[in-house]
Write the structure tokens for this entry.
Amino acid sequence: MINRASYFFFTLFLLCTSLMAQAQQQNTETGPINEMLRSNGKIYVVVTVLVIIFIFIILYLVRLDRKISKLEHQQQSKP
Amino acid sequence: MISDKTCRFAPNIDDKKMAKHWWKALAVLLLLFTLIAGFLVKIPAIENNEQSTRNLFFHVPMWISMYTLFTISVVNSVLYLTKYDLKKDILASSAANVGVLFGVMGFTTGSVWATYTWGSTLTNDPKQIATAVALLIYMAYLVLRLSIHDIDKRARVSAIYNIFAFAMLIPLTYIIPRMVDSLHPGSASSPGFRSQDTDGTLMMVFYPAFTGWTLLGVWIYTLRVRYKRLELKNIFK
């Protein structure tokens, strides 16, 4: 069973790296989000980092949870 | 043959060992301490980092967790090749899978941090680029596994690939970035954070932080191992 979601995430990551390489050329100085992230001693950078970690872990756990539920369902219907 | 294989995946002492909880509680406590102390502790002024130095407690442990999981993975791949026990293959593949999760988290958080301290999301920093390459090598390991349907063949081929991947990981992410000039602390031209941390407050939070995050990684890894064992038990029945 090949999971489509894993292909999706691989592709997304690959796209992200190339997009970031392009973004390197652009000036990231302006914009309300950039100003917010630079305010208060850049503390919002740390907040963003934690939010990213949280989102990834939750997404991974939700996927694992779904897989286990599917398995339990199969096991119940089998015998 | 079937009965032999079903018994290979039968729940045994390993499963009970994995379900023990005390170290999971320790992981939660350490992470709780990290989250609270990580935001409250007084940090030294390091160049233009300002408050973002606190990322040391969140971004760096991702990599330590990833190294731990990839080490577990390569050890189990070697063990698989000595006895061809499929249990070891499950351990190896699960560790690599969760290791990639932590690697991607480390890379993404590092990119955000780089945007606001180095001025660019993907810099020409050797460590950042080499890490992206190492992560792609490990993603290729997962894709390789998806592409082989025969369980034994998949286990053998991917175990050998995994050893090569680990042999590339260490020079790419650890040795080369330390030999050349890098924006990362701890490389040839820039001192590590430890040298600016005169009263040791950073390290006081950093050690519990990476222990906690690594334990969390191992926790997710054991969940995946338990799930994979159940799944394979079903297939062989």
About this structure: The mean pLDDT of chain B is 86. The interface with chain A takes residues 35, 38-39, 49-52, 54-55, 58-59, 62, 98, 101, 104-105, 108-109, 111-113, 115-117, 119-123, 132, 139, 142-143, 146, 216, 220, 223-224, 227, 230-231, 234, 237 of chain B (CB under 8 Å).
